[in-house]
Amino acid sequence: MSFVLRFLDVTFGYPESPGLIIDSFTGQFHRGWTGVVGPNGAGKTTLLRLASRELSPTRGTVPGSASAVYCAQRTDAPPPGLRDLLTGHDAPACQLRGRLGLEEDWLARWNTLSHGERKRAQIGVALWRQPQVLAVDEPTNHLDRDAAHQVASALQSFGGIGLLVSHDRELLDLLCAQCLFVDPQPPILRPGTFTQADEQAALERDAARSAKLVAGSERKRLEREAAKRRAVVDRSRQRLSKRGIPKGDHDAKAKRDLAKLTGKDGRAGRQLRQVTTRVERAREAERSIEAMREPTLGIWMAGEASHRRHLFHRPADRIEVSVTRESDGWRLTHPELTIGPQDRVALSGPNGSGKSTLVRHILEHLELPADRLVYLPQEIEETQAREILAKSKGTSRDQLGRLMAIVKRLGSDPERLLESSSPSPGELRKLLLAYGVARLPHLIVLDEPTNHLDLPSIQSLENALSDCPCALLLVSHDERFLSALASLRWNIHRTAERSFELVLGGPTPGSTEG
Length: 514
What we know:
Elements: E1 5-12, E2 22-29, E3 32-37, H1 44-51, E4 59-61, E5 68-71, H2 82-87, H3 91-100, H4 115-128, E6 133-137, H5 145-156, E7 161-165, H6 169-175, E8 176-181, E9 188-191, H7 194-240, H8 250-261, H9 264-288, E10 312-314, E11 317-321, E12 330-334, E13 337-339, E14 344-348, H10 355-364, E15 373-376, H11 382-393, H12 397-409, H13 414-419, H14 425-437, E16 443-447, H15 455-466, E17 471-475, H16 479-485, E18 488-496, E19 499-504
Parallel strand pairs: 3-7, 3-8, 5-6, 6-7, 12-19, 14-17, 14-18, 15-16, 16-17
Antiparallel strand pairs: 1-2, 1-4, 8-9, 10-13, 11-12, 18-19
Helix pairs in contact: 3-4, 4-5, 7-9, 12-14
């Protein structure tokens, strides 16, 4: 493929936001995958939508007429073309269905599919359309380990120009030959895998900080020299001043006039002007060095242990889930379940096994007041996200300041968030977490909490939860995250075609039995 995707001096800002999201970016992308990385809300999704021509630049151009597909983070609705992919008999359709584990009835029961199953279907349709440019936003969100490997393998087979936004370092390293860092602006392309490009970025930051320190030291030295020269000039002017000489002392006045004519006062003035010029140059040199500031991250997750004997208790039972009106659906059986006031529970299992269904079942039978619960669902519809942001903007100045301080400590720009009309999924999760921190919860329930969060934010959340004294229920495919926080393991595995079982203290989270 000879096509090259070009950005020529591209600038973009949303009409409702006074700031720019992309500022004066020029770059080009060839065949293969490019990772697009940066903090939540920095413009990664915007850049993908510009590349796929869902958006048009405010200034500059993205020339060409190549076919392009954008795979969004959200999976609320079935992607156009899903029916044809699921029923098609052509070789690419059959191969993709097998590679991604897609089932023919998924369109009919879209609303009951797990988010991971929806994501696989979405990516399958995008690959089946065989575009020249494929922009994929967080493809491994919600996916268990096996499904993530399926998606990675499918994306590896893509032969066009790929842009990949992901917080999955393993996926970025597997697919990408270069990475675009979108923060600070304008974006910077660096060669190599994410690990290699990130190391290069760290070296550049260190070099810039060192250069900034050297430039600052030189500027201070010249300022001290200028101060000395200025003192010499001031003393010279005082000596040459006729002020204070008696009116009749013509000899003293003549001596001072002679000193001015011989230029003794002029040399000091010229030397001061020369040093002052060098000071201004040194200040400009220091200002020109862009030393990236490392954000101050980390929050304290407020909470307290309940005095209740348990927060949730249910005898052994079977949960029936209807897939469609005509179907019997599937069954999830579980033993006696209890969550104590200081329990830290990790719930894991393959996509579609009923983890989110079990979470909803637990929430319906909790034995604690609603204001003592913090719940973060897997996904929130865009209309609800707008409402949450609008509600935040309408709070008191003090409360809004506290919320935005926490958002900042989780790695996002509060001003950029408040300027937007619709937060990114990552920013929304941070905002909801900020609301949670403002309470004193007895139980925190997080369903796939690391989805949509950038890497520093995940580390900040992990650190915050490790110090929180209340109970935790964490649903995740991120084994590293669960291992750091959970002491109790609940694992769901398949026992038959439409039957799953919850086992206490079962296999390691992230396993996908069956």
